[in-house]
Amino acid sequence: MMGDYIGVIGDLHGRKIALGVSGGVAAYKAAALTRELGRMGADVHVVLTEAGSRFVSALTFHALSGNRVWTSLWDGGAENGIPHVVLGRGIDAILVAPASADFIARLANGLAGDLLSALCLARDCPLLVAPAMNRQMWENPATQRNVATLGNDGVVIIGPGEGEQACGETGLGRMLEPEALCEAVRAFFTPKRLAGRKVVMTAGPTFEAIDPVRGITNASSGKMGYAIAAACARSGAEVVLVSGPVALPAPAGVWRIGAASALRMRDEVLAVLPGADVFIAVAAVADYRPVETAGHKLKKSGAAMQLELVPNPDILAEVAARPDAPFCVGFAAESHDLDMYAENKRRAKRLPMLVGNLLADGLCGDDNTVVIYDDEGRHPLPRAPKALVARQIVEHLARLLPTA
Ligand code: CTP
C-alpha cells in the first residue's frame, strides 16, 4: 500500500505544462501563475507571444520558471530548428493565460503564424484557455463564436471572471486570479474518482459560548478539513462542508455552512445528510459545553468561578450508527499511543476508515504526518503538505467506497 504514496511531492508533480502568455494587461498575473504552478510541482515552460512580451519580459518568466522562455517560431536554438515540435514533446497540457481575443480568434481558425499558435495546432495534449479581455470584446459575437468553436473542439475554457477591468469598466472578461487558474489545472488533472458522490463534512473547531463574547474553543485551524473538502471537490464530488469558525475561504466548488457550536454543527449535518454517500468528520468538536450561556457579558467578582459543563453529542458516532449511514471517515489527533487510541476510536464508532495523527505533527501547521486505519490495518503516509495528504486520503477513501 505504501508504494502508492511514494514519490508524490507536489500536486502537479512531474507535469510538464506549456504556459502560453499572449498580449493583455493580465499578462502580469501570468508571472504569479508561473510560480504557483511551479510550487505545485509542475515543470513550467513559458511561451510568450510578441504581444505578450510587450507586457512582461521573458527574463521574468525565465527567473520564475527556471526554464528557458520560448518566443519565436524562428528560434535557431531549438533542436532541428523546429521549436514548436521540440517544445511539444512530453507536454501534459498547454495552458494559455491570458488568452486575448485575438489569440482566441487565431486558435479557433487554426492559424499557426507564431510559435504559441503553432504549438497549439501541433499539440498532442489537452489545451486549457483562460480568456482575458475587455467586456465589449468578450461580449462581441465574433469572440463568442470563437469560444464556442474552441469548446466544440474539446478546448477547456477557464473563466473569464467578472469585475473591475484595466480599462475602468466592470463586467465579464477579466482573467481569473492565478490561484483560481492553478486550482482549475489541478482539478483538470485529478481523476474524477468521486463523480456523482455527495460528501458531507465537518471541519474546524467549535465555539461553545459562555456569554455573548466568551467561549470554549480549541486550536484547530481547519486547514486539514478544508484541504480534504477541496480534494473531494476536485475529484468530482458534490461537497457540503459544515464548518466551525476558521479564517479560511471556502474551497472552489464547495458549499460551506457555518456552524459555531457542536449542537448547531450536529443540526446542520443532519439537515444536509440525506443522499450523502460519504461523511468525513474532521472538526475538532468540543466534547463539553457550558450547561447554560449567559445572556449578558459576565462581570468578574474576584472570587473563584465554577463553570458547569455538559457533554456534547458525538456527531460522527450518531451519523455512523444510523441504519442508512454513509461511508464514515473519522479523525483522531492524539498526543501519544496513536495506533492504540486511533484503532480503538475506529472500532468504538464502527468506522470503515479513520485518519490519525500525533498532535505534535500537524494541528496548526501546513504539513501533516498521518496514518490511515481501515479493516486491513494501518497505512502510514509520508509527511507532506496538507493539500497532498488530503489528496491521498481522498484516493484511499475512493478505493474503499462501495460501488454506487
Ligand atoms: N467527533 C464528532 N463529534 C464530537 C466529537 C468528535 O463528530 N462531539 C468526531 C471528530 O470530528 C473526529 C472524531 O470524532 O472525527 C474524534 O473522536 P473523539 O473520540 O471524539 O476524539 P476526541 O474528542 O479527541 O476524544 P478524546 O478526548 O477521548 O481523545
List keywords for this structure.
404 residues, alpha/beta, Rossmann fold, 2 domains, eight-stranded mixed β-sheet, 21 strands, 32% helix, disordered N terminus
What does the secondary structure layout of this molecule look like, with pairings?
Elements: E1 16-21, H1 27-39, E2 43-48, H2 58-65, H3 83-88, E3 93-99, H4 101-108, H5 115-121, E4 127-131, H6 135-139, H7 141-152, E5 156-157, E6 161-164, E7 170-174, H8 178-189, E8 198-203, E9 208-209, E10 215-216, H9 223-234, E11 238-243, E12 254-258, H10 262-272, E13 278-281, E14 288-290, E15 309-311, H11 315-320, E16 327-334, H12 338-348, E17 353-358, H13 359-362, E18 367-368, E19 371-374, E20 377-380, E21 384-385, H14 386-400
Parallel strand pairs: 1-2, 1-3, 3-4, 4-5, 8-11, 8-13, 11-12, 13-16, 16-17
Antiparallel strand pairs: 6-7, 9-10, 14-15, 17-19, 18-21, 19-20
Helix pairs in contact: 1-2, 1-8, 4-7, 9-14
Bound molecules: cytidine-5'-triphosphate (CTP).
